[in-house]
């Protein structure tokens, strides 16, 4: 242990602790901009500078470790003046259109300007001008709002191990860009959106479709259907000041109905369709010599990654569409026929925690008989903006239920939103099928938890099944390399592009670096989804009566010809760089 004094307060911490960590553990706030715990600890922005008694100059607290007897000051007049100058320099080359920025009110740079009472810019002069990259269907890149903190670079390179962006040029011309400054659409970007989650300003944001959705809602000739993913209901409340992990399903449904959607459905029902098809496909491969291991296909960021980096292994991927795409196809076929709504007049809007779902909905394969499965995808953040635009007092809303006839979903559908959930939901159905009866064992703890890679060997109906769950593309790469090298003997693999799964998707509420360092957001959101599952009357997808009805009246059987037409797709090799 090391003893030191920070702002007159005696402190004892473990050796190798940084000054920043020591201060925060003892309730002393030191401002940061570039710092992201365990991801970007490089001391670039210098906002976290402190004075260390007996030393010349300032110490950068996010990288300076504590020493015995050290005396530290975090807010002396000299420190405050230096931080204000640093802010002035950053703002001198920053587009200050805060009122019309998507991060207005949730911007770390803006927060610091308020904290340090910045009322004018001391340094006026030449500003760099960069073209906004909005070519992709998922992400908009505006370097004019970038502060060169490199958090996005570190996330893309060190967490996801993609490296689609990096710092280019030098000096005043330095910028975060792609290979030869091409669009994110044309380089090795997977649209996972983790860069957006790490960005402290509005330099990176989702491609917004709010105005398009409002137009469809208001058009009396369009029948607008909205579906919401499981991860959205345990994160949306955070946008309105509610505790992390609060389940706001009832309020969310009420808000959507108040906004004017004709039908409000639950993507969890779509997840039940996915399990019916995916479990059937897995058992077919297992029992009849198909390609193993079979790998889940629910995460479009993962799919784009596989198509670009492992085209030789695409045969391992399940051919199932993701839940919201399946559900969109069902809405425009079964629902349209049963309730006599012209399919061409239906607009399906998916509310997702995921940026890559925007890309997925635009893929040419995602349509049946010339009708797109899903017309628009908006994120959890975009939904919160729409609720505010509609002047809805979200926190005080009454609860409502999803609409019939497809509002019923299983607990298995709910846990799709967290890493290991797809695997667990599929195992529940596969186990019942192999055993030929409903078994009581429901929870597969082996595939739960925070670890990026979870391996397990399960005994089901006398068969030994080896499974693995990976979240985050760096972990996906490890598993895929094992398979490519012939070192893997897995039967079933679940991969999610985002670390922690959909609950930590690129479209979820953005947390500042301090919150991310001090609160386990993933754990709180995951616990909320597992609570939904535990409280559900139906906890297996194949026992959902709404699903049974659709198969009886329309799809006929899982894995059948009609199911393949509406609920399955295919993948193909893609160039890493379309330049």
Question: How does the SSE layout of this entry go?
Answer:
Layout: E1 2-6, E2 9-13, H1 19-25, E3 49-52, E4 59-60, E5 71-73, H2 77-91, H3 108-115, E6 139-141, H4 151-159, E7 166-168, E8 175-177, H5 194-198, E9 204-206, H6 210-218, E10 223-228, H7 230-233, H8 249-259, E11 263-266, H9 267-288, E12 294-295, H10 300-309, H11 323-338, E13 346-352, H12 356-362, E14 367-368, E15 371-372, E16 376-379, H13 380-389, H14 411-414, H15 421-435, E17 453-460, E18 463-471, H16 473-484, E19 492-496, H17 513-518, H18 521-535, H19 545-555, H20 561-567
Parallel strand pairs: 1-5, 10-11, 10-13, 12-19, 13-16, 18-19
Antiparallel strand pairs: 1-2, 3-4, 3-5, 6-9, 7-8, 14-15, 17-18
Helix pairs in contact: 9-11, 9-15
Structure description:
The protein has 579 residues and is of the alpha/beta class. The chain folds into three domains: 90 residues, Ubiquitin-like (UB roll) (Roll), CATH 3.10.20.740; 85 residues, Alpha-Beta Plaits; 358 residues, Rossmann fold (3-Layer(aba) Sandwich), CATH 3.40.50.1780. It has a five-stranded mixed β-sheet with strand order 2-1-5-3-4, with helices on both faces. A hairpin with a 2-residue loop joins strand 17 and strand 18.
Helix content: 25-40%
Number of domains: 3
Give the number of helices: 20
Q: Structural class of the helix and strand makeup? A: alpha/beta
User: How would a textbook summarize the main sheet?
Assistant: 5 strands, mixed
Which parts are unreliable, with pLDDT below 50 for 5 consecutive residues or more?
none
- Distance from first to last alpha carbon: 54 Å
Spatial arrangement of strands, main beta sheet = 2-1-5-3-4
DSSP strand count: 19
CATH topology of the largest domain: Rossmann fold
Radius of gyration: 25 Å
Mean pLDDT across every amino acid position: 95
Morphology: globular
Strand fraction: 5-15%
**CATH top level label of the largest domain:** Alpha Beta
Architecture (CATH level 2) name of the largest domain: 3-Layer(aba) Sandwich
